[in-house]
Amino acid sequence: MRRQLFLIFAIILILSNRLFSEQYVICNKDAQANCLYSQAHKAPGSSDLLIGTIGGMMKSTDDGTTWENLESEIGEFFIKQTVFKNHKIYAVAYPFGIFVSADNGLNWNEITPGLPSKKTNSMAFNGADIYVGIDDAGVFMTTDNGNSWENIGNGLAAKDISCLAYSGDNLFVGTFSNGAYVTSDKGNSWQEINNGLNFKWVSSLIVVDNKIYAGTRDKSTGGIFCSTDEGKNWSEVNSEVAKNPICAMFQIDDLIVAGTDNDKLIYSEDNGQSWFENTGKLSIRKAILEIPNKNFLLQSYPQKLSLIYILPKK
After folding, report:
1. How far is CA 14 from CA 11, 18, 19, 257, in A?
2. Do 174 and 160 touch, CB atoms closer than 8 A?
3. Which residues face 78 on adjacent strands?
């Protein structure tokens, strides 16, 4: 894979009357790295930050001020998602499968050799069970950390999986062209849950308390939808600012943030009751981190630059 280098700026969002101000301060303008695309975390047992990019993993030892490439077996892979669980790092490396590291990213082992396709887009956990969504093969589950995989998507009408979310006994699945589905029995049965969804491309699913939010889109528009009955019915968020092509959503406490594909950032500070839009012409994709006692870290992905935002905590 050809490594594409982009300039990364880390900037501090200074609060004015609302959370996302248009005043920014650049704090690492000399750093260079690949475009960021996945979630950032504190390394287990370490103060280092690790984040996935379109060209492998990167590490920061100074709370995001500077970043360096983390040389490893997945050094040039497209990291779409990272999950830190049980002192291990799981990386969704498209289109090469799922990799796991027990030494903070220095060495990696693939856990998906038994899958029919390595085009993994998303993963979700429920206890020891790991669920993987593949964009051309459906949903698979492992109960032994990847030694064996079970196809639990045989009854699923759609196989183009874009995102996963687990809540209670329910595994929610978003697709690129067929909306959303849910199973409550580990794939023995599936229900289509598209009543009220106006778009069939579900790019992101998050669970906030007893609500499920779906970020949806097509090429030029989209929206955020909410369900309070486990996906049986959906209602569009009653806000013009949310009618955008959503590419990612995240939740921290009462804050929900949605990034779009038309350079906008949408947010709610009251668990989805009201929504606002920043006017800085910026969009986020898939990176968010809470640095303890300091900041939230959000990553944006404009057309030409990759930005890291440091958001002061309330």
Report:
1. 9, 10, 8, 17
2. no
3. 94
174 close to 204: Cβ distance less than 8 angstroms:
yes
Which phi-psi region, left, alpha or beta, contains residue 239 (left: φ > 0; alpha: ψ -120 to 50)?
Answer: beta
Handedness of CA 172, 173, 179, 183 (dihedral sign): negative
Q: Quick one: tokens of 197?
A: 């969804």
Q: In terms of DSSP H, where are the helices of the chain?
A: none
* Rounded-to-integer distance, Cα 205 and Cα 225, Å: 10
The predicted model scores a pTM of 0.79
Over residues 117-149, the pLDDT tens digits come to: 999 999 999 999 999 999 889 999 999 999 999
SS3 295: strand
Q: Which residues pair with 180 in a beta bridge?
A: 174
DSSP-H helix ranges across 251-300: none
Distance separating alpha carbons of residues 59 and 41, to the nearest angstrom = 10
